[in-house]
Amino acid sequence: MPFDDTVNLKQILLRIATFFRQETCGQCVPCRVGAIRQQEALERLIEGRPIGSVNQELTTLREMGQAMRDASICGLGQTASSALESALHRWSLFS
Amino acid sequence: MSDPILAPSPLIPIPRGQAPEAPPPRPRAEIEIKIDGRAVRVPEGSTILDAARSIGIDTPTLCYLESLTPVNVCRVCVVELEGSRTLVPACSRKAEPGMAIKTDSERVRLSRRIVLEFLASSVDVSTAPSLQEYMQRYGARPERFGASAATVAQPPKIDNDLYIRDYSKCILCYKCVEACGVDAQNTFAIAVAGRGFSAHIATEYEIPLPDSACVYCGNCIGVCPTGALMFKSEYDMRQAGTWDESRQTQTDTICGYCGVGCDLTVHAQEGKIVRVTSPLDHSVTHGNLCIKGRFGWQFVEIGKSAK
């Protein structure tokens, strides 16, 4: 989806994370818990209160993303981290 | 005058027809797959987990049990299959000729570690020894998600004298639902209710257990991997700090209530029965019992105190 430079990307990401937290069916562990941990981590980053350092949180997010993509049962869990990971990969949003 | 009718005597053999012979088992074709570079031959229809176990590879499992239909929801058994976009669950994925599997790659270890961290950060795993062992093996650090991470913490449900349900320890492995349903008991007293992180095991309309369809066979307790379902006797002793498995004996016996011949393993501490289980691999029970075999032993203790 194209965005111009006036949008608040962090809020968009938080909205996407909240969407997946609400939409996960809860059957498999990576998606059920991953969706909520992802949203929690993003909230901490946005509010500027990371656990450890920002880099530590970003590592946690990347690892969670990979496990959700690799181990979730269906496409919802497998793609729940895509927008976040893509944004973190392209822009230094939190550093 | 007709002959008197004789009652059948146990001494006169009753003529019986020849018992039909069972058809010979169809030979199962063998297929070959590669696991961690080693060629493995398994009968057609085997899972990747079967194949891995046949060559001594210890694959962690939580929601899998030999006597239940695999639901592959815990995702702790995932392995890397060459050519597959995602990892695949070893417990339910059937082996196919030519498959190349990695059971201990970086990718596999990461997913297993994260799954364990997800579980241990949201569920009380203090009475789940196998899960704790896996956490050590994969270096899981659930504390990395912080003290404010959402959990399923809630007070235990104690609404009957036989067993308690502490869903703050539930990892939603579905084993109890399966044992209560078509895989063993066919009672269907419990199911998964709600969705997402709020998904949980519940009776119909969340009514208390005594009002539900539960028949107290306790087969759900027998399959629970985390101690979320627990004998009331064990729960009370744990609360009092007196539960000590190192001081317990296990005695195998046959249930005396009826003629089925269920195998019981009676667990006793200081000569007092504290719980009853049945071996999973026993040909009669497959680990399942009924309310009498599972819970009908209080009279033993009453008899003792009356003496």
Q: Can you offer a commentary on this structure?
A:
With 95 residues, chain A is mostly helical. Chain A has five helices and no strands. Chain A has one domain: de novo design (two linked rop proteins). Chain A is globular, with a radius of gyration of 13 Å. Chain B is built from eight helices and twelve strands. In chain B, helix 2 crosses helix 3. In chain B, 38% of the residues are buried. At the A-B interface, helix 1, helix 2 and helix 3 of A face helix 2 of B.
What keyword list fits this structure?
heterodimer; A: 95 residues; mainly alpha; de novo design (two linked rop proteins); 5 helices; globular; B: 307 residues; alpha+beta; N-terminal domain of TfIIb; three-stranded antiparallel sheet; 8 helices; 22% helix; 18% strand
Q: Which parts of chain A are unreliable, with pLDDT below 50 for 5 consecutive residues or more? A: none
| CATH C-level of chain A | Mainly Alpha
Q: Which descriptor suits the 3D outline of chain B?
A: globular
Rg of chain B from C-alpha positions? 24 Å
Number of helices of chain A: 5
H-E order of chain B: EEHEEEHHEHEEHEHEEEHH
What's the count of strands of chain B? 12
CATH topology of chain A: de novo design (two linked rop proteins)
Q: Which bin fits the share of residues in helices of chain B?
A: 10-25%
For the largest interface, the chains and their residue counts are:
A-B, 32 and 33 residues
Major sheet size, sense and barrel closure of chain A: none
Strand count of chain A: 0
Poorly predicted tracts of residues of chain B: none
Label the structural class of chain A.
Answer: mainly alpha
Overall pLDDT level of chain A: 94
CATH superfamily of chain A: NADH-ubiquinone oxidoreductase 51kDa subunit, iron-sulphur binding domain
Distance between the termini of chain A: 24 Å
Which structural category do the helix and sheet elements of chain B fall into? alpha+beta
- What's the CATH topology label of the domain at 163-306 in chain B? N-terminal domain of TfIIb
